[in-house]
Amino acid sequence: MTRTPLRPLARVLQARQAGHNPDLIEAENRRLRAEALRDGARARAEVRLMVLGAFFSCFFIAIIVKMAMVATSAPVEPQSGGGASDIIAMRADIVDRQGRILATNFDTYSIYAQPRDMVDPAYAAQELARIFPEMSEEDLLKNFNGQRSFVWIRRQASPEQIQAVHDIGEPGLLFGPREMRLYPNGPLAGHILGGTRFEHEDVNSAALRGVAGVERQFDEFLSDPANEGRPLRLSIDLTIQDAMERILHSGMMWMNAKGAAGIILDVHTGEIIAMASLPDFDPNDRPVVQTTGDQADSPLFNRAVQGIYELGSTFKIFAVAQAMELGLVNPETMIQTSPGIRMGGFTISDFHNYGRENSVSEVIVKSSNIGTAHIAEMIGGERQQSFLRSLGLLDLSPVELGEARAGKPQFPRQWGELSTMTVSYGHGVAASPLHLAAAYATIANGGVTVTPTLLHGQPREPGERVMSEETAQHAVDMLRQVVVRGTATMGEVHGYQVAGKTGTADKVRPTGGYYEDKVIATFAGMFPASAPQYVVVVTLDEPVDTVGTEPRRTAGWTSVPVAAELIRRVGPLLGVRPIIETPLLTGVSVAANE
Description:
Strand 15 and strand 16 form a beta hairpin. The chain folds into two domains: 94-132 and 155-233, Alpha-Beta Complex (Penicillin-binding protein 2a (Domain 2)), CATH 3.90.1310; 240-573, Beta-lactamase (3-Layer(aba) Sandwich), CATH 3.40.710. It is built from 17 helices and 16 strands. By secondary structure, the chain is α+β, with helices and mostly antiparallel strands. Strands 1, 2, 3, 4 and 7 form a five-stranded mixed sheet that branches. A five-stranded antiparallel sheet has the order 9-8-16-15-14, with helices on both faces.
């Protein structure tokens, strides 16, 4: 906008020459400017009034037209379009490898109250306390008689409870449609499934979100309508999972243990057929997170993937396998097993005196710490660390559980000569039972690493070969002898040729050091030894066998019998054909027909 000067120089000069007053020119220009501003403001106001009037006119015309249509049309129920495709809004099911339901959805209702609409709050509070015993009649009545206009009663309820509340006949008790997550098998596979919670909740709807386990890991897949309800298929077998949990529970009670973990793993695919942690919980009624005390004592704690333990002598086979792969020893190489090794104020000794020398095979069968330490000394710390890392024992497990991120293996920062020796027999390094199962699967399948997984039938890249088939076979043969005549003879199951290794490690104190009377007892095995198909790991927390005259805590007396019963029970369910071994006849001659 071009502004006119109030005192134009040319006009001022002309006025002065003509003897006129130049101030009149400025006054005239001010008047003209004020009139122009006034006219512009009036024009804008008129436009705004016209637009506002037009808007209100359209609004009232629309209301009049709608009212006319409603008044003149016949009442008709709304019909959905037949050609439109259904949108799947429900959370997808979770099934086992056979397609059996592990988690599904259930249509139910939420229950809430609007106290201002209630006729008899006292009677309603009394009846609600009867239907829901966990509720207090006094608290309910206090909420109903207070200043609140809305009170939650239950965010989800069973059909029986819904009907009982409906029968109260109180108009102030209302119901909202709700979708709830149902785990029909109760606590079975509870740690794997995890559980859900409501999110973005109101009286008529609420979004389900996973809080743990595969429900959380695959939350995006389970809640994506684009999947059209396609279920998430897990690798676990419901029948075998049930058998494992029952046997673990019995074994835990029998051995007076405070906790237990068990894993069955396919040695070729890495698929987890069953995995359990006790004590467990029911994901239908997931307990709250423990805020005090040791989190490892909570039923939410998954010992199979979160439990980081020193797994003792189960590690010895790794040192022997690596030494054989490097060409340092063979199964018949003689290794010094006496006297003990003294280093830095620490003495490496054996549970029994096994003599001055033993073969490498006997070192494994008898479980000699001294012999294993000498073998590890040949390997060296750098090569030992690299080999254990290639087995996945020093890294986070890649299994599809968020809880596995808490199971980070622990190992020495300074991997010196003493650490090299102690790590070889499972002390000074801590890993989860699932780490151990995957490492044993590498030996069982001929030396190729596997990635443990909870998904069934997914394409997978072949693992890395970390040892030759010959080395792996020698290792399996040694583990078989451990069961036949070594520390795990109670693990023999007729027809299944079990091979494996025991491990008993003193339990670490939270404040440092070790308990003298508390151990972690583990058996890691595979079957059948002639062509291993499955790895089995059983770990008991603080077991003690009190059947004999003295308490026994070693794995051979505690975790091994539990593992044997597990193999005996699930072997037929896994379709493993028993191998009938005919005993060798002695003192019998066969006469030839002439």
